[in-house]
């Protein structure tokens, strides 16, 4: 992976971003944070509805229909801006432990969101009446928040990988 | 009120120095700040899009906004608290930082915009709350709100890029007299005895120099070596572009004088850099690119264990700059080019040894140019 990161950093798009990094990186990072804001907002609305803490004047299905596409859109924006950040700073991103642990959480969040979306569409009635009361479902809703929090924490920690990066198996090898 | 003094006292509180000295607290504060601001931004966006009629347009506004704005305010309080704590750690630098000031102005404007909404469309919510969109002024404030908050995120992110390294610049303003530091530092070579200070206004100049902890290799680099090096590297070059190869070199006496001045800065910098006991960086300085750079404490360890090597490398910088002075006096562009190349190699090989030994690309480039002198 180190070799790949070094190779990527010598490619033309990467060099372009590196040459203009004084502006490109803050701009891409800001777009990335806007994306995080949108994703958190959309996920918050859906989880609060499942927990019954807000938006109870709407059905679960209606809430999902309103915010699901925004979550998907925000995730796409995050993947695109995050991808650019990797191209711009391959060595910084790809060799840090924080980055890879973050990717595990991103995959977890995506899996949770996809399964929620499918389940709401298939079992609409059960969601409105019984599922929202089930402890496991409520726990999963809270888990979404924990996962989002971890993603944000790890994303910021990429810049501070020296704190715990030595735990990375790659460094030991 | 004396704002700089007040800011300095903020930085000196136990809380601020505790955060600065911990490896973990600042990154965690920053992460919590991002979590809080993403909740603020996310919920405000939902409300603004409802006002604009773009989304959730079927939902009555009053209930939706009261449910959400509770969360917004809670998250805003968290962001304000974490933001204040981060500000305290380096208050003078943030206070003088333009993106920080822009962000504060934008936050104030967002507050005014909110007040505008409450004084106008906010008074008649009951009349329009079931309509798909708010009245004109409500839609205007919603658009302003979205624009302001996006700008706030940008300004906030830029702060981090414009304050790293600023610490050094702040600690060593242009007026800093490094010669005082050199003769006043406890470990510095013994200076010639200074004439007894005359009483009266001149006594101020006899005050002990700033705490040596305010100076480090990093501050000397930032205040002297780096600007002069950049000037020299810019002053002479072979430029290959669509017009063919051209040579850039000093031509007028003023240009030669400027080059001479910056070469002299590098010659003089050697004796500052090799002061025994000089620290690599200020307490609390962190690498902005830790994936390839050593952290100050790693640099410090290397310096402590091989100071003679560092002294020799600083000597190479002086020798290269002294060659440059000779070239300037002879008005010899070719020799000047050689001297500046030697300065570049002296800088790069020392940086590769102490500062970013893990930067494979820089190492490879230096090897290709024969720049590594080990």
Question: Could you list some keywords that capture this structure?
Answer:
heterodimer; A: 173 residues; mainly alpha; 9 helices; 0% strand; B: 374 residues; two-stranded antiparallel sheet; 16 helices; 2 strands
Describe this structure in words.
The complex is a heterodimer of chains A (173) and B (374). By secondary structure, chain A is an all-alpha fold. In chain A, 80% of the residues lie in helices and 0% in strands. Chain A is elongated, with a radius of gyration of 19 Å. In chain A, 43% of the residues are buried. Chain B is mainly alpha-helical and 374 residues long. The model of chain B is unreliable at 165-213 (pLDDT under 50). Chain B has 16 helices and 2 strands. In chain B, strands 1-2 form a two-stranded antiparallel sheet. Chain B has helices at 3-11, 14-21, 25-52, 61-89, 91-95, 98-119, 125-128, 136-163, 166-171, 178-184, 217-235, 253-273, 296-305, 307-329, 333-354, 360-368; strands at residues 237-241, 244-248. The interface between A and B is large, with 45 and 42 residues.
Map the helices and strands.
The complex is a heterodimer of chains A (173) and B (374).
Chain A: H1 2-8, H2 12-19, H3 21-51, H4 60-88, H5 90-94, H6 97-122, H7 124-129, H8 135-157, H9 169-172
Helix pairs in contact in A: 2-3, 3-4, 3-8, 4-6, 6-8
Chain B: H1 3-11, H2 14-21, H3 25-52, H4 61-89, H5 91-95, H6 98-119, H7 125-128, H8 136-163, H9 166-171, H10 178-184, H11 217-235, E1 237-241, E2 244-248, H12 253-273, H13 296-305, H14 307-329, H15 333-354, H16 360-368
Antiparallel strand pairs in B: 1-2
Helix pairs in contact in B: 2-4, 3-4, 3-8, 6-8, 11-12, 12-14, 14-15
> How many strands appear in the DSSP assignment of chain A?
0
Shape of chain A: elongated
Specify the biggest β-sheet of chain A. Answer: none
**Mean pLDDT of chain A, nearest integer?**
84
Broad structural category of chain B: mainly alpha
- Which geometry of chain B do the CA atoms define? elongated
Strand content of chain B: under 5%
Give the oligomeric state of the chains in this entry, treating copies of one chain as homo and distinct chains as hetero: heterodimer
Mean pLDDT of chain B: 80
Q: Of all protein chain pairs, which has the greatest interface, and how many residues does each chain bring to it?
A: A-B, 45 and 42 residues
Taking strands numbered 1, 2, ... along the chain, how are they ordered across the largest sheet of chain B? 1-2
Number of helices of chain B: 16
State the end-to-end CA separation of chain B.
55 Å
